[in-house]
Write a structure and sequence with these properties.
By secondary structure, this protein is α+β, with helices and mostly antiparallel strands. The protein has one domain: Alpha-Beta Plaits (2-Layer Sandwich). The protein has four helices and four strands. The chain has a four-stranded antiparallel sheet. The chain is globular.
């Protein structure tokens, strides 16, 4: 059995008011992005996804078999392709909170 790897993708939006000032084209891209993430998640390749409520950053944690697969998923994301924000991809280790 292979050990799956986690990679964190951060997409820091290019303008602070993005959520309230999206152009129709940007709205379309974000719709494609959400559908893309849903499809990857349905395949079991996402451990977590979400966004800061202030719209400053989106986060996806890919759970994949290789770094190449993480890069492929990352660079094929419509939001990354469209340059909606400043994308970052890093190897990641998910930690679990301890009981307090």
């Amino acid at each position: 059995m292979s050990h799956r790897l986690d990679f964190i993708c951060l997409l820091r939006l290019k303008r602070p008011d993005f959520l309230t000032t999206m152009t129709p084209e940007e709205q379309a891209v974000m719709g494609e992005h959400i559908e893309y993430i849903r499809n990857i998640s349905a395949q079991g390749n996402i451990a977590l996804s979400g966004a800061a409520v202030d719209g400053s950053v989106g986060v996806v944690i890919y759970r994949v078999d290789s770094a190449e697969e993480a890069r492929r998923l990352f660079y094929n994301d419509p939001a990354v392709i469209a340059g909606i924000g400043y994308p970052e991809l890093h190897p990641f280790r998910i930690g679990y909170p301890t009981a307090i």
